[in-house]
Design goal:
Layout lengths: L1 H22 L5 H23 L9 H24 L2 H22 L6 H17 L11 H23 L4 H28 L9 H6 L2 H24 L2 H8 L2 H12 L6 H19 L2
Length: 289
Amino acid sequence: MTAVFALATSLLFGLADFGGGLLTRRLNPLTVVVVSQTLASLVLGAVVLATGGWQEAGPQLWFAVAAGVVGPAAMLCFYRALALGPMGVVSPLGSLGTVMVPLGVGIVAGERPGLVQVAGMIVAVIGVLLAGGPRLSGASVARQTIALTLIAAFGFGAVMTLIAQASTTVTGLFLALFVQRVCNVAVGGAALYATTRRGTPALPEGGFTALRGSLPALAFIGIADVAGNGTYALAAQSGPVTIAAVLASLYPVVTALAALGLLKERMRAVQTAGASLALVGTVLLASGG
């Protein structure tokens, strides 16, 4: 079940990134974050009330609070890096955080994957890097871009690790995800307010009327992101974190395939090779012992 939940995480994160990438072409990225997370919070709040998850409140929820504070900061660094540098460098480097942080935690905790699984990890990570279509030539990338990307990568990995520690039951997980999303909205809302004070419009041309047409897509992004955090927590709790982390990091492949299928974007040869290697690594990880 670890492989199933972790691969579901990649699917959900990949689709959420694809939708978010489309919306940020015409909406303020912070608006996308705040609105999508608000809609997700409303859905999660209803789930928590319906399942009685609020009864499982305890000290472990501080992990969810920390994830809710780190998440928006990591996302802002990631968006800034995308604005400053080539996506072919920023995107795959950003995804590495979802591997390295949980992987390091698992190894420190005493997990020791088998040789076949180690080979699968190496192949899958190389595949993820290549699937982003890395820039193999041209001008060097600014240090600020690399620094922002690495901060974002660490933040993304930290969020996944923190949420995995925030609950031990499914109903407790609903509560942890709800707390995380409320914190996301608070931190992201404060950042959005600060940018509007500096003159950056929060709404697109047409105001709320234009934003209303994007609400279904924003809801999908928020719910997919929440569900991805949830399936990763289940993957990390049901099996080795070292395996869950690598399989959950395959979402750039999903984003690239979504662009290929829905936008008819052509994949570069390096991306095709990366997707193929990621698939091989997945098979090795799922079958090795």
